[in-house]
């Protein structure tokens, strides 16, 4: 039976009662209070083996109280709970030295399990503290799906592990990477981002590792790579699934050995960067098709974070809309708001472009419509071209959806791709990059359909058998014949 004395502080008597009963059943002794001052008195007197406290109480704020408690009792584990449920709440809890942050409502079994882990951990294993005072909220949303993301990020702030962010296009993978940098150990160093899908294949190694003068045609001077530019900080490798196999091999060597050489160089250069990678692909499928190195995947996937698509967190849409309207107002556009029926339309929409698509919609609404209040017909008119069919205000989210054509899917993808460059345009060579991106899944699908029979796959694709074999070698694809 577990033992320990738990101090609980919450101004809600019902919550205090529920927590008291759950922890008493688990074998703990419990004291409860609704006042921050009482909690401080108990802690200062040396009472309690663990604290569970709400953030906001009638006579104070737990975030002001935590540093005081930590000064007199640095090893005392503190669990912070809050109904505010924002990213900054989780980060502040971590910065003030909380052992764990729990958004309300929470599962009582999970709380009891956390209490058990906190009381059984070795003494002196208290989380480290940070003094950053962030100004802007980098991530918006209070949904359960985002709470899981916030808690994972809060745990990662004091440590320096490699992170792999997985999510669909437009879910905010770079925002998460920047949050990891801005509130983590390396916040005083540079944050350098590189999009693998936007760099021509033959330039990726030069972009990453730099090159020496004369290393190749056009290399008129020495150029530093992204690893050198990110020294002491964070290197964000976006769309890592699009990295060519040759560059994957060099990146793996850097992660293993902690050093690299420039293109055309001979002297190894030590590197000290934190790697955060991101992809919108299932890299395990890419590994199965021979398009991504399994050993590199395990080097990068030390801490995986999944960003949910917007359709899985529709309860966050109102907060996101208000956030984006406030952003565009700061940029000089008129103040806008959206009525409840229009908000219902937004909740029913599938959001193939995720949060980025919602932000673009809000910007259009603010720029193009003179009305202060945006109504449902306006939103439906703006979403209709993207959905391909009129949206009915009373339509159900469970209604059958029209199958998207390949042409429509490619057009949507390209729209998001170009949108990611803002006022700029992508690097030259887009036509061949797109073809190289389409070829592997097309050939893989044909091989899968013919169970690895290259003769039948070539016939299916309308290619000469030797041409197909050449492409399989060039793409370094593994072909496995399987019986019917």
Automatic annotation (TrEMBL):
Member of the two-component regulatory system NtrB/NtrC, which controls expression of the nitrogen-regulated (ntr) genes in response to nitrogen limitation. Phosphorylated NtrC binds directly to DNA and stimulates the formation of open promoter-sigma54-RNA polymerase complexes. The lineage of its organism: Bacteria, Pseudomonadati, Pseudomonadota, Alphaproteobacteria, Hyphomicrobiales. Its main location: cytoplasm. Residues 139-367 form the Sigma-54 factor interaction domain. GO terms for molecular function: ATP binding; phosphorelay response regulator activity; sequence-specific DNA binding. It comes from the Bacteria. The modification 4-aspartylphosphate is found at residue 54. Keywords: Activator, ATP-binding, Cytoplasm, DNA-binding, Nitrogen fixation, Nucleotide-binding, Phosphoprotein, Repressor, Transcription, Transcription regulation, Two-component regulatory system. Transmembrane segments: none annotated. This is DNA-binding transcriptional regulator NtrC. Residues 5-119 form the Response regulatory domain. Residues 387-406 are annotated as: Disordered. SMART domains: AAA, REC. Gene3D superfamilies: 1.10.8.60, 3.40.50.2300, Homeodomain-like, P-loop containing nucleotide triphosphate hydrolases.
């Amino acid at each position: 039976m577990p033992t320990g004395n738990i101090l609980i502080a919450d101004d809600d008597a019902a919550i205090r009662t529920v927590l008291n009963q759950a922890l008493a059943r688990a074998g703990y002794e419990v004291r409860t209070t609704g006042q921050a001052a009482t909690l401080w008195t108990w802690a200062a007197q040396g009472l309690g083996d663990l604290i569970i406290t709400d953030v906001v109480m009638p006579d104070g704020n737990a975030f002001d109280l935590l540093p005081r408690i930590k000064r007199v009792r640095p090893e005392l584990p503190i669990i912070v709970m809050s109904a505010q449920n924002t990213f900054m709440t989780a980060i502040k809890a971590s910065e003030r030295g909380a052992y764990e942050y729990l958004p309300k409502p929470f599962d009582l079994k999970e709380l009891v399990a956390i209490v058990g882990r906190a009381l059984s951990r070795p003494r002196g294993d208290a989380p480290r503290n940070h003094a950053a005072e962030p100004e802007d909220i980098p991530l918006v949303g209070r949904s359960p799906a985002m709470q899981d993301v916030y808690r994972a990020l809060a745990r990662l702030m004091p440590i320096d592990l490699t992170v792999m962010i997985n999510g669909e296009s437009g879910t905010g993978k770079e925002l998460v990477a920047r949050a990891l940098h801005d509130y983590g150990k390396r916040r005083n160093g540079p944050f350098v981002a590189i999009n693998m899908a936007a760099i021509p294949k033959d330039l990726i190694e030069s972009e990453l590792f730099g090159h020496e003068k004369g290393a190749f045609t056009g290399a008129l001077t020495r150029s530093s790579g992204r690893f050198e530019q990110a020294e002491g900080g964070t290197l964000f490798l976006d769309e890592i699934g699009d990295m060519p196999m040759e560059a994957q091999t060099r990146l793996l060597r850097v992660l293993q050995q902690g050093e690299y050489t420039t293109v055309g160089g001979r002297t190894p250069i030590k590197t000290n960067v934190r790697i955060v990678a991101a992809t919108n692909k299932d890299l395990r499928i890419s590994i199965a098709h021979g398009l991504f190195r399994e050993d590199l995947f395990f080097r990068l996937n030390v801490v995986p974070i999944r960003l949910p698509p917007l359709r899985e967190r529709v309860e966050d849409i109102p907060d996101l809309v208000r956030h984006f309207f406030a952003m565009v107002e700061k940029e000089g556009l008129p103040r806008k708001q959206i009525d409840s029926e229009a908000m219902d339309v937004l909740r029913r929409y599938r959001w193939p472009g995720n949060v980025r698509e919602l932000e673009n919609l809000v910007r259009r609404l603010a720029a193009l419509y003179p009305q202060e209040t945006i109504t449902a017909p306006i939103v439906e008119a703006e979403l209709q071209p993207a959905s391909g069919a009129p949206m009915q205000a009373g339509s159900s989210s469970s209604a059958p959806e029209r199958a998207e054509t390949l042409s429509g899917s490619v057009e949507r993808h390209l729209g998001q791709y170009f949108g990611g460059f803002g006022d700029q345009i992508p690097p030259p060579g887009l036509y061949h990059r797109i073809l190289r991106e389409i070829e592997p899944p097309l050939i893989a699908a044909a091989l899968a359909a013919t169970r690895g029979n290259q003769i039948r796959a070539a016939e299916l694709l309308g290619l000469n058998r030797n041409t197909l074999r050449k492409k399989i070698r060039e793409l370094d694809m593994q072909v496995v014949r399987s019986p019917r």
